[in-house]
Amino acid sequence: MKLEKFIRIFTKDYKQEFQQMVEQLAGTVNRNFEVAYEVLAGKVNLRDNIACTVKEIDVSVDANGIPTTATSFKVDSVSTRVDGVVVLNVLNLINSTTYPPGAVFVSATQANSASINLVTVNKITGLTPFVQYRLRLVAFFVA
User: Fold this and answer.
1) b/e per residue, 106-131, with b = 16+ CB within 10 A?
2) For residue 136, what are the β-bridge partners?
3) Which residue from 71, 88, 132, 137 could staple onto 67, CB 3.0 to 4.6 Å apart?
4) What is the DSSP letter of 116?
5) Which of the pair, 104 or 35, is modelled with greater confidence?
6) Residue (of 143, 132, 141) closest to 56 by Cα position
């Protein structure tokens, strides 16, 4: 089903006796329906509309999935707790035509101090050990 064109409510489209009421409601109704229309029309994107941070990290892991160098990243919100980290994309930096042997999962923790916006990657499963990868991660925030 194709979404119809968004139509605004205009005061002049109503009888004189209803125009004052329509004028009071039109601003709120038009704004909110425009937002809903954009969502339904697919104009929502991850970075601007979801409580999250998207980051890329370069990493290599040992045979146990532990990063070979300390790996962390900053999230955009200092005062919000991270609910979890999801992998969006994985790129093998040595050979871009070779893919990870399994589903890539990241285990991470967030600092409990003033640097709450720092997320440390503890373990990554699904990668070939000692191969350099670039991971695009999404850290979702607790609502």
Assistant:
1) bebebeeeeebbebebeebebbbeee
2) 56, 89
3) 71
4) T
5) 104
6) 132
CB distance 87 to 135 below 8 Å: yes
Q: Which helix (H) or strand (E) holds 126?
A: none
CA distance 35 to 78: 27
Residues 128 and 122: their CA atoms lie apart, in Å, by 16
> What is the reported pTM?
0.72
Question: Per-residue pLDDT for 89 more than 70?
Answer: yes
Q: Which helix or strand (DSSP H or E) is residue 11 part of?
A: none
By mean pLDDT, which of 76-80, 81-85, 128-132 is the weakest? 76-80
Helices (H), 11-141: 16-40, 46-49
Domain boundaries of the chain, sorted by first residue? 1-44, 47-141
